[in-house]
Amino acid sequence: MAEKPPALQAQDKLAFLLSLVPYLMDHDRVSVQAVAEHFGVPQDQIRSAVRLIAVSGVPGETSQYQHGDLFDIAWDDFEDNDQIVLTHLVAIDDTPRFSSREAAALIAGLQYLSALPENGDRDVIGALMAKLSRGSSGSPSQVAVAGSASDTTLALIRTAVDEERQIEFEYVDSRGEHERRRVDPLRIESVDQDWYLRGWCHLREAVRTFRLDRMSGLEVTGEPITHRAGEITLPERLFEGSPDDLTVVLDVAASAMPLLADYLPDAQPVPSGKGRVEATIRVAHYHGLKRLVSRLPGVVRVVSPPEARRVIAEWADAGAAQYPRAPSAGTG
């Protein structure tokens, strides 16, 4: 004969009810059996808890419990069909809510996350978006996040990683050279708004890092990969130097140094006063500095060599020339 489960203490009953009410709110209609299986308790315990919920609430202005101050359920469904449907909630609408604009912003962010291949559990993200829609103070604005070419590339690479297949693509390296690469994809990583693939390059016969927006014509081949992530030690840094790299000295705000961690060699930055430091970085060519400087305006200044300063100055002048100059003020 099966032993009767021990009776719940008052504290346990409260914890159970605090879990049960949100669960029932998230399920418009649910059977007693399904709820019992979810919480791992007998069905009679669920029925008793539902009856207790139906006589619970918050007293109104009269300090007495009126009909509208209590939870309510669809009693016919409960008694005849063993189905639980909450028909009236109390003390729920008094909680702080997101504004419709805040909810729309969060939903837009969740839509973007759900589109990324590494976020496989899209059901959870979808349920959270539905909660935000129901729980905001007004109906959120309808928003949609447009996809990009990188989203398609990410999806293809994720497929190749999952199926352990090689990929081929045209790649434009940092020097502007075009090459066809065949790669064993090992890991996808992001830095700021850019996505990178780390993999074993069959052309270079070594681990290489590829920026996704420089790829084109990507294909997942039928060839299995020959190198796996568990068999290769990937460098801790996303960007690794090479003997052909050029060195550049920068004057940088000390607080911005963590943003340059992937570019720095082993040499330590030297304090230069007023919260700034001089740091030496390695780049494939001086034109690669343009992206770095444009992202950190006023924070990074190229100190040397003169050729690097010249490249950045010409690039800045060319950009400024695209804007019309304000007319000079006349003299009286």
In short:
With 332 residues, the protein is α+β, with helices and mostly antiparallel strands. The protein is built from 9 helices and 13 strands.
Strand order in the sheet with the most strands: 8-7-6-5-9
Radius of gyration: 30 Å
Number of domains: 4
| Sheet having the most strands | 5 strands, antiparallel
Structural class: alpha+beta
Low-confidence segments, ≥5 residues, pLDDT <50?
143-147
**Would you give the CATH topology of the largest domain?**
Arc Repressor Mutant, subunit A
Proportion of residues in helical segments: 25-40%
- Report the average pLDDT across residues: 74
Number of strand segments: 13
Provide the CATH architecture of the largest domain: Orthogonal Bundle
Helix-strand sequence: HEHHEHEEHHHEEEEEEEEHEH
Backbone shape: elongated
Beta-strand share of residues: 15-25%
Tell me about this structure.
With 332 residues, the protein is of the alpha+beta class. The chain has four domains: 10-88, Arc Repressor Mutant, subunit A, CATH 1.10.10; 96-147; 166-231; 246-319, 2-Layer Sandwich (Alpha-Beta Plaits). It has helices at residues 10-26, 32-39, 43-53, 75-81, 100-115, 122-135, 149-163, 289-295, 306-320; strands spanning 30-31, 72-73, 83-84, 86-88, 165-172, 178-191, 194-201, 206-211, 215-224, 246-253, 270-273, 276-283, 300-304. The strands form four sheets. The protein has a five-stranded antiparallel β-sheet with strand order 8-7-6-5-9, with helices on one face. Strands 11-12-10-13 form a four-stranded antiparallel β-sheet, covered by helices on one side. Strands 1-3 form a two-stranded antiparallel sheet. Strand 6 (178-191) and strand 7 (194-201) form a beta hairpin. It is elongated, with a radius of gyration of 30 Å. Residues 12-134 form the PafC HTH domain. It comes from Compostimonas suwonensis. Residues 246-318 form the WCX domain. Keywords: Proteasome.
